[in-house]
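Researcher: I'd like a candidate sequence for this fold, 69 residues long. If you have to choose between options at a position, lean toward the conservative one.
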């Protein structure tokens, strides 16, 4: 769930993230689920990094991009 992803990001960046919870809009999806089973089956896809590892790499890239020169 999104809350778990946000918790992971907070751990990576080392501080809390300000969260602003809002009411659902009419027509918003109630439930969604990402599933890579079809990609694994049809394309022999295998993820090379975990979500947390990928987020950590992205955070490092962002820090390097905006680091003082």
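Model: Candidate sequence:
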């Amino acid at each position: 769930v999104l809350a778990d992803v946000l918790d992971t990001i907070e751990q990576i960046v080392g501080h809390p993230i300000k969260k602003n919870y809002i009411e659902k809009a009419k027509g918003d999806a109630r439930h969604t689920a990402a599933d890579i089973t079809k990609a694994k089956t049809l394309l022999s896809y295998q993820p090379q990094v975990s979500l947390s590892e990928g987020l950590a790499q992205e955070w490092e890239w962002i820090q390097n991009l905006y680091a003082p020169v």
